[in-house]
Amino acid sequence: MNSDIKLFENGKRLDGRxxxxxxxxxxxxxxxxxxxxxxxxxxGDNKVIVAVYGPREAIPRHTQNPLRAIVNAKYNMAAxxxxxxxxxxxxxxxxxxxxxxxxxxxxxxxxxxxxxxxxDVNIEVLDAEAGTRCAGLTAAAVALADAGIPMKDIPxxxxxxxxxxxxxxxxxKEEDNYGSADLPIAISPRTGEILLLQMDGHLTVEEFDKALxxxxxGCYIVSDIQKKAILEKYQPNSEGK
Length: 241
Ligand code: ADP
Prior knowledge:
- By secondary structure, the chain is α+β, with helices and mostly antiparallel strands.
- The chain has helices at residues 92-106, 132-146, 173-178, 205-234; strands spanning 8-9, 12-13, 25-29, 37-43, 46-57, 70-77, 117-127, 156-163, 166-169, 181-187, 194-197, 200-201.
- 27% of the residues lie in helices and 30% in strands.
- Helix 2 packs parallel to helix 4 (205-234).
- The N and C termini lie far apart (43 Å).
């Protein structure tokens, strides 16, 4: 943590948010013609697009599971998505994020319905400004719903973290860079089950409990935005109600 960087001004965060306030989120469903399901999501300055293909026969065949579908989430950050051009292609970080997102989604998709199949979830980050794994998973869930993939629930993700000894919701870029902890989670909002929980940095037990509570609250707000976006496409006159 760099103590020279001030992350609060007059009691407010650098972008004017309150401690329990999310960045602005916009979700558009079904933006790609060739994918079975798709979603474009803006979360603060993050921009993410997701394309879902399948269920289709898993290839190569040795990857098939005779009892259920495999879920292949592939998280990729575009070379132009960050300040310093990122070397294109997979790296350790994107492999890790792909793995944790695949596992989170596997727990809500009814994978037993599609033996030997694969469900492919391509997550492309076009602009990255902290919190892209949460943005990617949230958009992936909407794209899966758009593809008509049967799920127990529409999963959702959000992070909380710690900056200058305060627990806050949804870290922005400077907060992520200079803060002291980040706790991204994903849940199934219907059951409250935690599908993903990672932590970067240090939190006391009390701070952890507070951050987890805050991240869960954030998830429910994002979940409402997801549902509204899906209803806007499939029931355009319902006004998301
Ligand atoms: P998340 O995006 O889920 O918060 P991290 O905590 O790993 O994941 O990354 C935080 C932010 O750091 C990213 O959103 C992105 O803005 C930036 N970042 C990540 N990887 C790179 C990279 N290879 N080059 C430049 N910036 C990066």
